[in-house]
Amino acid sequence: MIQLYQxxxxxxxxxxxxxxLFHGVECVVLGDFLSGAAGELPAVQFPTxxxxxxxxxxxxxxxxxxxQHRAQADGQQAWDCPVxxxxxxxxxxxxxxxxxxxxxx
Length: 105
Ligand SMILES: [Zn+2]
Description:
Blueprint: E1 2-6, H1 10-22, E2 27-30, E3 48-51, H2 57-73, E4 79-80, E5 87-88
Antiparallel strand pairs: 1-3, 2-3, 4-5
Bound molecules: zinc ion.
Zinc ion binds next to loops.
């Protein structure tokens, strides 16, 4: 497995995982359960996203670039999901309800 990304928190990790799964990329989030055991660990880790199938790496890096680029370019404008109508804050690029992408406008 290859580590793709270190998220700020478990919510971002989950969103990014959903984004990748939406594009057919098999990935897992590790480390988002460690805070409960922090007493036995030297430091609380940030959750990290791991690519399961290494052959996808080049394509997945592109998806990650898109994800990060759009997160910056789109700013903080809130939006409504084009698929299910769920309202999302501007720092989210995919619907937290159904995983659809923000419509580009
Ligand atoms: Zn949705």
